[in-house]
Amino acid sequence: MTTMKVSIKKARERFSEIVNLVNIKGERVILTCRNRPKAAIVSLRDMEILENKATDKDRRMAQLERIHEIRKGIAGRGVTGETTEELQRMREERGGAFAGCH
Q1: Is the pTM of this model over 0.90?
Q2: CA dihedral over 24, 27, 28, 34, signed as positive or negative
């Protein structure tokens, strides 16, 4: 898979050819104006990969935020570490709500 640079002017003239290169051969095309990159044309497969990576990153960030909120809640109860004794005390306070978790 290669990446080619094409001026926007030439891309207008060769649009069908460029779309076919992207679709059939998986080429990536950087559109330029005055030799400066302005946009890219990528295959649908590449776009899906990029979207999945963004979704995965958003999901991981949401999980980290939830972990942060849980840790703040635990710290607010006076728990300062993640020791077995502290976890056991929390289980007892909740009346066995964590029964079966070891």
Answers
A1: no
A2: negative
